[in-house]
Amino acid sequence: MTPTLVRRHRPSSSSPESRARDWAEIQERMLVPLYEAVYERLEVGSGTRLLSLGCGSGLALLMAASRGATVSGVDPDGRRLALARERLLPEGGGGARLGHGAPESVLDAGAPAFNLVTAFDPLYCAGGSAQGMATTLGRAASCAERGAPVVLAGWGPQERCAASGALRVAARLADPMCAPARWRPCGRDDLENLAQQAGLRPDGSGRVACPYGYADMGSAVRGMLSTGAFDAAARATDEEQVVKELSEALHPYLRRDGTVWMPNVFRYLIARA
């Protein structure tokens, strides 16, 4: 599925609430082809009991639920999680289980173990120390059935990811802080190494085209800022500098009609608990 070009007239804001809303309204949908490819390959449906790590504002969970899956998710960002609750738990209804913490926080003592775990957000996989992420994955796997698939996602080769130029701006500006959430290129075996650190057995992989498409430069800047990749850069310098350099990095992808289009390839790994 090609991402819909979205135009948002709300002015840019550095508030966490605005960033979370920009993620939900502009950026999250860019990974829809990744969600669809994984769900299709693993035949997600009515028998699936999904745990999503870094579930964001819940779009991937909503897509799985539309296939009949029982869904649960955790995310460290309480604002994104609040938006996920709006999507998945309207008017206080049941169905999904959402938590702001460890994978165990969404365990239902009376329900069967999860039979699918996903970590789709590349920054969620890369954020913090590798050992910390491996520990989280291991804890999630312990909540799943033996042999259940655990899916990790990351960036493809830099030469096939147009967004990498913009993300290098974030890395360069944030370098003095050595920030753990700072973007860095994915190595060829990063996902496999992470899975093995978590005690998981790699069992297949794939690549998916996930172009970033925006209706205008303002939407592109807000969408990229909402990923969290630029937070450390803004703290190390200031938001005005980040926006200026980000806009310059995005300019080569500005088309004549005012839209911004960046082809990207993402890679996913299927491991086994």
Mean pLDDT over the full residue set: 88
SSE string: HHEHEHEEHHEHHEEHHHEE
Count of helix runs:
11
How would you name the CATH homologous superfamily? Answer: Vaccinia Virus protein VP39
In CATH, the architecture is: 3-Layer(aba) Sandwich
Give helix % range: 25-40%
First and last CA, distance: 30 Å
Please give the radius of gyration in angstroms: 18 Å
The percent range for strand residues is: 15-25%
Contiguous runs where pLDDT drops below 50 for at least 5 residues: 6-12
**What is the highest CATH level, the class?**
Alpha Beta
SS elements, strand count: 9
The main pleated sheet reads as: 7 strands, mixed
Q: What count of structural domains?
A: 1
Q: Predict the CATH topology.
A: Rossmann fold
Short account of what is shown:
With 273 residues, the chain is of the alpha/beta class. Helices cover 38% and strands 17% of the residues. Helix 2 runs parallel beside helix 3 and helix 7 packs antiparallel against helix 11.
Describe this structure in words.
The protein starts with 15 loop residues before the first helix and ends with a strand. Helix 6 (130-142) crosses helix 8 (190-197). The chain has one domain (16-272): Rossmann fold (3-Layer(aba) Sandwich), CATH 3.40.50. By secondary structure, the chain is an alpha/beta fold. It is globular, with a radius of gyration of 18 Å. The model is unreliable at 6-12 (pLDDT under 50). The relative contact order is 0.17. It is 38% helix and 17% strand. The protein has eleven helices and nine strands. The strands form two sheets. A seven-stranded mixed sheet has the order 3-2-1-4-5-9-6, with helices on both faces. Strands 7-8 form a two-stranded antiparallel ribbon. The chain has helices at residues 16-27, 32-41, 59-66, 78-88, 122-126, 130-142, 164-174, 190-197, 217-225, 231-236, 239-250; strands at residues 49-53, 70-74, 97-99, 116-119, 149-155, 201-209, 212-214, 260-262, 265-272.
